[in-house]
Every structure is written in structure tokens, then in C-alpha cells.
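Cross-posting from the modeling subforum.

Setting up a comparison between two proteins and wanted a second pair of eyes on the formatting. Protein 1 (sequence, then C-alpha cells):
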Amino acid sequence: MNINALRTRFAAAAAAAAVLCAALFLAVPAAHATAAVDASGPSQLIQSASEVMLKDIDANRAKYRQDKTGLYRLIDDVLLPNFDVDFAAQQVLGKHWREADEQQRARFIKAFYRSLMQTYGDALVDFTGDRIKFLPFTGDPAAPRATVRTEIRRDGGSIVKVNYSLRKTAAGWKAWDVVIEGISYVKSFQEDFGPEVDAKGLDYLIQRLESPGPAVKPAKRS
């Protein structure tokens, strides 16, 4: 499935999936928002991050509709510390990550992250907490990898299954992938970006992502 199809599913689950769309600024004091997230386990991390986000959005919805800057700041402070940016970027680029130099890697992470925020972050403004159902955690909390399962209710009442992939790092549990109705965010971008990098080079992809406006759409292929 290409990114256009993924975006359709992603928009329906935007509030929960935004764990992988954290961005650039801050609307509430950093120490307060970060401390409110319980990262003691994979399920606690996903649920508490979502609750902190949605509580703030409920209180500031009208303001965020007028100016998204505060929303982007909130996303960054609550979610970015709990997202394994480097690992996700490595998986998205695949073999091209190994071929990239340190500057290219840093530019890709920053540009890709910014693009995700601009493309998907706005959908959070209209999302409410009653749409999310956190399913019981059935994994082994002692294992180095975990999956947290949720269900998102769409406007029409249908249910979208959203699963989070997490890994235990030296800094604690981190989310790195979202799987929406069986479609992996990381794998989908890898499949779209890979041929583009093969044909035009990594610098071309980075420059496209760095250009103004939402840039995570797949490039047109000849």
C-alpha cells in the first residue's frame, strides 16, 4: 500500500497515531508535560501520552483551530521524548541508512519528522478521547519488544485497529511504529521512499522533504 492509502487510514486514527507524528514546538511547560507521561511500561506509555495530549487539546481546541503553533509544540513535548526517532528512520530508509553519512541521516530525521507533523498533526484538533479504546496488554513486559493494541472509532462508527510497536532502549520504552489495520507506517514509507532514493538519490528525497508544506506524499514516478 502506498502513502496516499496509508494517509487515508492514518487520518481516521490521527490522535493515537500521532505518537509517530511529534513535531517542533511547545505549548505547555516542558517539564510538566514530560513528567505527566508514564513510561514505566509499553501500555502505560501509549495510554498516558494520549491522555495528556487529549486533555490539553480539549482545553485549547478553539485556540488551536485558529493557530496550530501551540498544538505542534504540545505534540513535540509530550510525544517526541517517547518516540525512537533514530530507529524509526533507520527502518524507513533501510539499506540507504547504512549508505548515508551522519549529515544526511540527521537531515533526513529532521525533515521527515517535520513533514509528518505538517501532514497529520492538524487532524488532532478535532479528535476527542472518547474515540479511543485501549485494549488489555497481552505481551510480556519483560521482553525487549512489545505491541500495544487500541481501537479508534471513526465518524461513521466503524472501528479502526491501531497497534503500536515499541522497544525497550537504554532510556526506557520508546514507540517506533504504528500499524493501522495491518498496514505498517514504517514499511509503507520504506516502500515509497526506497525506489525514489534508488532512482534519484538520498539528497533528492531529503530536499523534497525539506521543501515548504506537507512533503510526505510519495513523489510521482515515471
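Protein 2 (same layout):
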Amino acid sequence: MSADREKFNNAIGTVKIPILILDNKWHRIFGKMNPTDEIKELEKELSELLKRQGKLVNENKDLKKIKSNLMSEIVSNIDGVDTRDSDETVDKKLNDNKRLINDVNEKLDNNEEELKDLPREIDGVNKKLMLATMDLCYERLQSNTVEIEEIAEWVKDIRVQLKKNLVKKQDKELYNAELYSYMHDIFGPVVMELFDMKYVPTIHKAPELKTPANEKENKGEENKE
């Protein structure tokens, strides 16, 4: 193992992270990408461990209640509260309760021993799930970065082409305006009107070319009004 890898593993081992499958944001990671088979297996394993932990905790609560009731019965029998039963019956109840308490204690001890190990197991699987999730996320980040760069390059090329086409468009519009103006001056408005009726519906009519003479004429018309 390389020094960098060992350093990474040691650092990861000290990191405290929440239980991922209980975090809604972790589930949202997979809104736009599918989890790998490894992630699915680890998620299932972690879920089973958490269920087992919850079951043991609840089971211990019930066992402690049972133990408490058994202890109360023993105290009652010892104090002679139930005088209707014979000494032999009382002794049998005491022995039965003691046996049951021993069984409960044994079960509690076993559960507690398992509960001590479960947090370590849960943390271990949770760390594996974190690593698998991070691998998938960084793989997606890298692939997205490649696409982002490709799109950025495409946009750059399109902008250059757009600028060129805008200049070409403006040049052609100016040429149309000048050409139409020259034709109007040479052939006169009557001829132009006749040819406009024939050609204008099939061409993009150029805007009027603004010249100092035209602007002066337009201002004169406005003043007359």
C-alpha cells in the first residue's frame, strides 16, 4: 500500500459521519443517477444492522419489564402476601420466578454483548457505503466536467460564428439599402413602385438607407405637418 493510500485510509478511519441511509440528502444524490450494485448491497446490509439494533433495544426494554414483574412477585411471595397458597406452591412459584429471571438475565447479557458490537459493525458498513458513494459521485463529477468543457468549447465556437454572421448580415443589409437607394435615384419612384409590386413579396425589402439628404428631407416633412 502506498504512503498516500495509507494516509488516506487512516484519515477516513477517524472521520465521523451520520448514518447515510437515514439522511434524506444521501437519497437525493441518486435522484439523477442510479446507485451501483455495491451501494445497493451495502445499503441493504446497513439497513439490516440498524433493524437488528432497534429490535435488541426494544427486546431489552421488554425483558427488563418482565424481570421487574418477576422480582415483584418474588418479594410478594417472600413477604407472605399470597396466604391462600401452600408453602410448597409458594416455593414452586419462587423457584419458577428465579429460573425465569436467570433466563431473562442471560438473554439480557447476550443482547447487551451484541449491542456493544453493533455500533462498530454499523460504522464499518457505513464507511464502506460512504466510500462507494464518493467513488460514484466523483466519477459523475468528472464525466460532467468533461461534458461541461465540451459544451463550453461549442458555445465559444458558436459565439465566434454568430459574430461573423451578424457582421455578414449587417453588410448585406447595408448593401441592400444602398442598392435600393441607387435604383430609386436612377429609375425614379414610378418605375420602382411597379417593380416593387413584382419582386418585394419574394425578397426581404431593405430598410431605407439613412443619408444626410434623407434625414434633411424627413425633417422638412415633419415641419410641414
